Amino acid sequence: MRILVTNDDGINAPGLRVLEAIAQEIAGADGEVWVVAPAFEQSGVAHCISYTRPMMVSELAPRRWAAEGSPADCVLAAVHDIMKQSPPDLVLSGVNRGNNSAENALYSGTLGGAMEAALQGLRAIALSQYFGPAMRDLDDPFEAAAAHGAETVRRLLDRAPWHGEDYRLFYNVNFPPVAAADVLGLKVAPQGFRRDMGFGVEPVISPSGRRFLWITGAPQQQPTHPGTDAAVNLDGYISVTPMRADLTAHDILEELTAIE
Fold it and tell me: Where is the protein localized (predicted)?
């Protein structure tokens, strides 16, 4: 198997090394693991592409490339240039430093890379490591992902549907904020929503008198509705959420015919 690995935390991120090890285990001795990742951190860029400017790509080592662009850019660079003669069988994006459960999924560059792979007709999985107080004393905050990542990917490859001709399915995986030994299992869960949460801004004045705005986040330890992704993560379970890039609100299409 030929696997492409990308992320949004950048080519030197510790989570990328974890994902490379997972990918190598899945690919096996006869497989290939290719890395095409952003040269610099691209957290929060979602499915952004560098449509109005070119991006530089640099080969750092055999099968290892850095691109001055977003995770979606990295997938495009791999599929249509770097790996053009031998496209990947699977795209893995992550392991993100922090969860991409609930509304975080909408902003995530990690998911943006997986989404672009799905739009390119490839099997794709985004993987993220939830952080929390129970991990404070761990030597490796990614140990849950490292210990359970390969088995989770295998389950999806062997048992999950991958259909879809237009907006193909891809999967969002979040590992819980606990030690590897404390992971209770895996649960399929819909995307949740953290109420009374979300991003905001905090104004600051620089020493030169200029006004800047920092984007602010929110506490991540508030569970979503029972059975949804962040809730099961905080209960100690790996969440698996099937996703598509189709943004249509299918549940109200029939109701909306009244305006025709």
Answer: Cytoplasm
